[in-house]
Amino acid sequence: MTDFAATKALFHLPDGIVYLDGNSLGPLPRAAAARVSQTVTDEWGEMLITGWNKAGWMALPMALGDRIGRLIGAEPGHVVTGDTLSIKVYQALASALAMRPDRRVILSDTGNFPSDLYITQGLVKMLGDGYELRLVAPEEVAEAITDDIAVTLLTEVDYRTGRKHDMAALTAKAHAVGALAIWDLAHSAGAIEVDVAGAGADFAVGCTYKYLNGGPGAPAFIYVAPRHADQAPPALSGWLGHAAPFAFDLDYRAGAGIERMRVGTPPILQMRALDCALDIWDSVDMAALRARSIELSERFIAGVEAACPTLTLASPRDPQNRGSQVSFRFDQGYAAMQALIDRGLIGDFRAPDIMRFGFTPLYLDEADIDRAIEIIADVIDNALWDQPQYMERKAVT
Which residues form a coiled coil (predicted)? Predict the structure, then answer.
């Protein structure tokens, strides 16, 4: 059983702050600054370019991939880190389409994160030749999986509402009609129990700066099922995905297995910060974390609804049908969130009217939840949000 009081002590949280935005950016692990500093001074500073060999920099993408793989139910050796989530979405989608050359339709839903849709729209436009992005409401995905679908591209947990797709059922439906299934785990990895191998996912992608606490700009990851690992054509044939990068061949030869999904130079400083965060995750039992997340989120919902009847729950009522976040609708949600932040409760806002709160048991407890409820009640019931400075939109919401 994971000791969540012990894990809380491993994070730096500013005094007086209740942090319910780990679903956007996880807080700093206390040991991360020293780890990154050591990398800068002892490795980069003293080893210079020899750090790629002496400090094991080149092996980090695979080593970190395996540690993330445990958290998402992946087979060892089938997750690699590096690049950004947008790049990994592009890789997975383009590779999957190449594996279904007789089909042209990509199925996604209107609750998917816009970046995934933008990547898909751009690829469809570039490919031409009848390729199509077909969008349906999240609850209509299952019936929309027909035998003309090449690939389903779905985010397991809706970024606005926290609504959770049934990965195993939808993957099975896709496979039954000959389609491939790609899953975006941006709001799943480190938040809920995930089993990409058990669900039969073909590809999965995700980021590490949210629940995994890798820091702003932390690298993304990609999973390729073992049955595809040596056949999936790498859509971005980068130098480090080559079978022998230092042979300096003029022609590309794809690396073995998941290695072919490497693209550019690994961001070593970010990877060392992520490495430090994963030291904490190595001791976490995901079933215990999920149970604790549900306890905290249920306490939060009950408290907010009792104190603030003007707020409307936007997330599924059943905790089994949502991820590790809770959203409420409020017509002045943006201003209200700014007022909450001013008073020490950090969540975030998603247009048009969503106030979103993340539940991360590694560093949250009942006292944090109760304090959050008090602050929300004060801001909403006393209309403290109704001030000009809270109405002005900032660059990041």
Answer: none
Contact criterion met (CB below 8 Å) for 313 and 321: no
pTM beyond 0.90: yes
What does the pLDDT look like over 355-385, one tens digit per residue?
999 999 999 999 999 999 999 999 999 999 9
The amino acid occupying position 238 is G
Distance between CA atoms of residues 386 and 378, nearest Å? 12
Q: How far is CA 339 from CA 343, 345, 376, 383, in A?
A: 6, 9, 9, 10
Contact assessment for residue 384 and residue 330, using Cβ atoms and an 8 Å cutoff = no
**Residue 203: HSE in the Cβ half-sphere, 13 Å Cα cutoff:** 32
From CA 347, how far away is CA 20, in angstroms rounded? 5
Q: Tell me the residue length of the chain.
A: 397
Sequence-distant (≥ 6) Cβ neighbours of residue 374 within 8 angstroms: none
Give catalytic residues, as residue numbers.
113, 184, 209-210, 356
From residue 375, alpha-carbon distances to 300, 344, 382 in Å are 12, 8, 11
Q: Look at residue 296 and give its three-state secondary structure.
A: helix
The CATH code of the domain at 4-28+285-391 is 3.90.1150.10
Q: What is the pLDDT of residues 182-241, one digit of tens each?
A: 999 999 999 999 999 999 999 999 999 999 999 999 999 999 999 999 999 999 999 999
Tell which CATH classification among 3.40.50.150, 3.30.1520.10, 3.40.1180.10, 3.40.640.10 matches the domain 33-281: 3.40.640.10
Binding site listing for pyridoxal 5'-phosphate: 85-86, 113-116, 155, 184, 187, 209, 239, 265
| Six-digit token string for 266 | 């690994």
Which residues are annotated as part of the binding site?
A: 85-86, 113-116, 155, 184, 187, 209, 239, 265
Q: In which residue are the tokens 């020293």 written?
A: 34
Instruction: Tell me how many degrees the CA angle 30-65-217 measures, rounded to the nearest 5.
Output: 55
